[in-house]
Specification:
alpha+beta, two-stranded antiparallel sheet, 2 helices, Tumour Suppressor Smad4, single chain, 117 residues, 3-stranded antiparallel beta sheet, 14% helix
Length: 117
């Protein structure tokens, strides 16, 4: 899919840049990641939920310009013209704090109101 950018997010990160970009919210505990397109060059482009065993290959189709790669909003490297970036799901888990009595869905409704109904 040709586009101006991509957002690749885990379930824990899907309520940040991905949601702001029109992508879906993934519940915590779902394995895999979501890919949403920034300014796709197609009217039929939709976000993808990618299975944990699938390898995602991002290609910089430009013949002249590098592409900036950001992780958690911070620049990490540049992808040279014509080069590929491979992304795969890591089966390592981080620990997230959750207040007792507040489920993921309760917090989602609390934070996003009507959007989460």
């Amino acid at each position: 899919m040709r586009c101006d950018g991509l957002v690749v997010a885990t379930p824990q990160g899907s309520t940040g840049y991905n949601l702001a970009n029109g992508g879906p919210v993934m519940a915590w505990g779902v394995e895999g990641y979501v890919v949403s397109f920034v300014a796709p060059h197609s009217l039929t482009a939709r976000a993808l939920v990618v299975a944990p065993g699938d390898l995602l290959t991002i290609n910089n189709a430009s013949r002249e310009e590098p592409v900036e790669v950001h992780v958690d909003g911070r620049p990490t490297c540049e992808l040279p013209p014509g080069e590929d970036l491979h992304i795969e799901f890591a089966h390592r888990y981080g620990t997230l704090a959750q207040l007792p009595g507040a489920s993921f869905y309760h917090r989602l409704r609390e934070r996003f109101g009507r959007l989460a109904r």
